[in-house]
Amino acid sequence: MADKITQLQPLIEFETPRLRLRQWRESDLAPFAALAADPEVMAFLLPLPTRDDSDAMAERLKARIDENGWGFWAVEHKDSGEFAGFTGLNVPLATLPFSPCVEIGWRFARKWWGQGLASEAARGALQVGFERLGFDEIVAFTAAGNLRSAAVMERIGMHEDVAGAFDHPAVPEGHPLRRHRLYRIGRPPQQQRR
């Protein structure tokens, strides 16, 4: 992945006790493609990408970090040095019923499931969003049947906006993944602007 874009905003990277959230590297492409080709990882996402699609997505994620200083960061497991997935903050490209907004999202290879890493990375991303970037609210959304992601949203302190459930415009009508649940979290009271 060539560094084609000049850094426009200061790059934000950070660590949690077990993870390093950082800019994407060339060495992330193969493990990211393997993650994206796993039908279980992608069960609530459309569609399974080709290797070229996966590489292009990683390049877009890298470019958004280059442009904004933040985004969906590559997640590296500190002890092993392995790429585990991604977590971060994003302004969705699709116009959603609650736009404009900043979302939090994650995707991890199955090897890393069940260890609390998604929650750990997401808590770190929320902290960056509220403390360093000054967002007042961050949202998350997932297909209605994605109980794993909904559980992470609840573990990191998000609350479901039941009235905010929506049909995702990027998912075809009639598709079983079209209906989405919406979660929200506001800036902690101790960080409210005065």
Which SSEs are present, and which pair or pack?
Elements: E1 14-15, E2 19-22, H1 29-36, H2 51-68, E3 72-77, E4 83-90, E5 103-108, H3 117-132, E6 137-143, H4 147-155, E7 159-160, E8 166-167, E9 179-186
Antiparallel strand pairs: 1-2, 2-3, 3-4, 4-5, 6-9, 7-9, 8-9
What does this structure look like?
The protein is an alpha+beta fold. It has one domain (14-191): 3-Layer(aba) Sandwich (Aminopeptidase), CATH 3.40.630.30. It contains four helices and nine strands; from the N terminus they run ββααβββαβαβββ. The chain has helices at 29-36, 51-68, 117-132, 147-155; strands at residues 14-15, 19-22, 72-77, 83-90, 103-108, 137-143, 159-160, 166-167, 179-186. The strands form two sheets. The chain has a five-stranded antiparallel sheet with strand order 1-2-3-4-5, with helices on both faces. Helix 1 (29-36) packs across helix 2. The longest helix is centred in the N-terminal third of the chain and has 18 residues, at 51-68. The relative contact order is 0.15. Residues 1-6 have low confidence and may be disordered.
